[in-house]
Design goal:
332 residues, alpha/beta, Muramoyl-pentapeptide Carboxypeptidase, domain 1, Aminopeptidase, 3 domains, seven-stranded mixed sheet, 7 strands
Length: 332
């Protein structure tokens, strides 16, 4: 199906809907009781279930992100050759490759289903250790050995989670010396600017990111080499603060989760609205290479009345998050 057929929503009919329904069934989303080729209530429920399972925004609409994720979900390790390409290969087969390598101690970076440089290097190191041809390609022989070895020898925790936790532990115990990326994803430019000034006054180096798309924000954050990314978005019809961190496949960001929880814990008392920390696979969370959170606030009136409080909440949470490196070092 071409992107021109998207978005698909309830009421749509035709071959594109047939393709959608067949893919949902193929990844285990059942039952679908709508007539084949008709996007009815059952298909919408199936899309929402898939979005929920994959950490996507749950709206029952198949846009580019949901469709791409659905296509990726149909790929299994061994279905195709995996190697470093431009653009990078994506899919559940890549995620399984990464997960198996990480479980053996070969650090691919995040388990994100994206075959990038870290995955290629980890794969080549695995091949070197197993005395296989070192070409950074997951072909039949390499996949067969990986499945055999990883099924018998696995660590208790993926090396990539250990690395992220240790990087956080070794960082400065305050905001001073930290490089923070603040992403204005939509509707909060004034608060983003105020937050940047506030963090700078605490000694942090701040990079403001203004790319209108999440993938662009991630690219800018990666290129800048920030230590942590905080994305801000206005949801005018929402009366809650959602604090999202990266979680997908077999990996969740431990440092990102810690920061999201810290923010969610103090929002109710400081802003008077409920808050929720949740693991998600939003594009910007999936594609950033550092601990990252996306904070979504509403309604609009809250931001007008308590914008300064929001800045204080985020700044204090980041400060406590940075200071937690001292707490971790003191643990036996």
């Amino acid at each position: 199906m071409s992107d021109g057929a998207l978005p698909l929503s309830e009421g749509a009919v035709g071959q594109a809907v047939v393709d959608l329904q067949e893919r949902l069934l193929a990844v285990g989303i059942t039952p679908l009781t709508d007539v084949l080729g008709t996007f009815g209530p059952s298909t919408k429920a199936g899309v929402e279930k898939f979005q929920r399972l994959r950490g996507l925004r749950i709206d029952g609409v198949v846009g580019v992100t949901t469709w791409t994720t659905l296509v990726e979900a149909g790929l299994r390790l061994g279905d195709r050759l995996l190697y470093r390409t431009h653009p990078m290969l994506r899919g559940d087969d890549v995620a399984e490759l990464q997960s198996r390598l990480c479980s053996l101690g070969f650090d691919t970076g995040r388990v994100d289903g994206i075959f990038g440089d870290h995955t290629a290097q980890a794969l080549a190191e695995f091949q070197r250790n197993l005395q296989l041809p070192i070409d950074g390609t997951a072909g039949v022989a390499t996949v067969s050995e990986l499945v055999r070895v990883s099924g018998r020898h696995q660590t208790l925790e993926h090396v990539t989670a250990v690395r992220e936790r240790e990087l956080h532990r070794s960082g400065p115990p305050s905001l001073r010396g930290r490089h923070l990326g603040i992403g204005e994803i939509g509707g909060l430019s004034a608060i983003s600017a105020s937050l940047s000034r506030h963090l700078s006054s605490r000694g942090a180096r701040v990079t403001l990111l203004h790319h209108p798309e999440e993938s662009g924000q991630a690219s800018e954050a990666n290129a800048a080499g920030v230590d942590v990314y905080v994305g801000l978005r206005l949801l005018p019809d929402q009366t809650v603060c959602t604090c999202s961190y990266y979680s997908s496949y077999t990996f969740e960001s431990p440092a990102g989760k810690d920061l999201a929880n810290r923010i969610a814990n103090i929002v109710p008392q400081k802003l008077g609205i409920p808050a929720l920390a949740q693991g998600m696979s939003l594009t910007v969370l999936r594609e950033t290479r550092m601990p990252a959170v996306v904070l979504e606030f509403g309604p609009t009136e809250l931001l007008v009345e308590r914008g300064a409080h929001i800045v204080d909440v985020i700044t204090d949470s980041l400060d406590r998050w940075a200071a937690s490196t001292v707490e971790n070092h003191q643990k036996p």
